[in-house]
Amino acid sequence: MQMSDAFQARQQELAAPDRALVDGVLAGQRRALAKAITLIESTRLDHQERAQQVLGTLLPSTGRAIRLGISGVPGAGKSTFIEALGNYLIDQGHRLAVLAVDPSSSVTGGSILGDKTRMETLCQREEAFIRPSPSAGSLGGVAEKTREAMLLCEAAGFDVIIVETVGVGQSETTVAGMVDMFVLLQLPNAGDDLQAIKKGIVEIADLVVINKADIDPRAAQVVRAQWNNALHMLRPASPNWSPSVVTISALKQEGIDAFWAQVLKYRDALTPTGEFADKRRRQAVDWMWQLIHSGLNQYFRRHPAVKDALPGLTQEVASGRVTPAAAAYGLLKHLNPESDF
Ligand code: GDP
Question: Is the separation of the CB atoms in 205 and 184 below 8 Å?
């Protein structure tokens, strides 16, 4: 079957409620979008199959948004900033979706991002769609759903997508791997840059924003200079973009236009060279491989012979009686005794 035939068949297979869901999403209805995201977040097998059909049908309508990742420690001002930015963009005619990857929700079931009471004015605007982080599963699982939610938002006509995360653990790298531009929101405290350098976050930042510049504008400029120095020490990821630093006050809504100008400059610098599109292609292929890895991992762990042998062999490896390699190859052989590993 040709690819396009397969695509057509999949479209025809959509059941009536899912067809209505797809139409609702394409018409930009926030309710339909919310329902479609709930479907992709569901862990039920039949829901997952339906979700993949819905996503497959919507895929040609995705990809038209600019995708921004925004990260910062709790209190850095993420929600104040996103609210200010969102209102600014909506006033310019954009439609904005905000999704969250919250590492705390996968560990504790609670949420550092505490989405419900945040971004109150933005929540009330028709042109905004705000979705809290899915609470179940591992960070990988949460992020996978966020990627898919992002595609749904694009199909619904949201042309700016913000994926927000907290500066904790793996979540920043995960988010950087799904967006066009990764923005680090910092407090104007000298020394914080060293923290970020230690954690290797600077390498993935395309733009650094020093927030709360209204409190002490001079201190903010000092921190800005420190950041510029730190960024210059690194080899830029692209020959056409050196990460820059802007100071803003999210609270007073100052510097939001300068921030957005940097975002557009970034896109305009990387689009003619093909880097912008290349990055997305790479991210899509990486995502496929992540899903393959996690699928294989699950398949391996669920395999009856592996399940039987794993606890004993783990003990043997821990106590030094069997080498890790012998145990790993032995376990893998259970999947297919004929194959070489
Ligand atoms: P988040 O945890 O990163 O989402 O941070 P919030 O947006 O909730 O902000 C934390 C606190 O900092 C709140 O009390 C905000 O009002 C305050 N805040 C945020 N941005 C600014 C700013 O630009 N200037 C000042 N002075 N306070 C700010």
Answer: yes
Whether the Cβ atoms of residue 84 and residue 256 lie closer than 8 Å to each other? yes
Ranges of H-type helices in the chain: 3-13, 16-26, 30-41, 45-58, 78-91, 103-108, 120-123, 139-155, 171-176, 192-198, 217-232, 256-270, 275-302, 304-318, 324-335
- What CATH number has the domain spanning 3-59? 1.20.5.170
148-207 residue pLDDT tens: 999 999 999 999 999 998 876 678 888 999 999 999 999 988 666 566 665 677 788 999
Looking from the CA of residue 83, the nearest atom of ligand 1 is 7
Say how many CA atoms lie within 13 Å of 211 toward its Cβ: 24
Give the atom of ligand 1 at the shortest distance from the alpha carbon of 254: 23
Ligand 1 pocket member 215 (CB < 6 A): yes
CATH class for domain 283-333? mainly alpha
Domain range 63-272, CATH architecture: 3-Layer(aba) Sandwich (3.40)
For 236-289, what is each residue's pLDDT tens digit? 778 889 899 999 999 999 999 999 999 999 999 999 999 999 999 999 999 899
Residue with CA closest to ligand 1 atom 11: 75
Nearest CA to ligand 1 atom 6: 77
Is any ligand 1 atom within 6 A of the Cβ of residue 186?
A: no
Task: Answer whether 157 contacts ligand 1 (Cβ < 6 A).
Answer: no
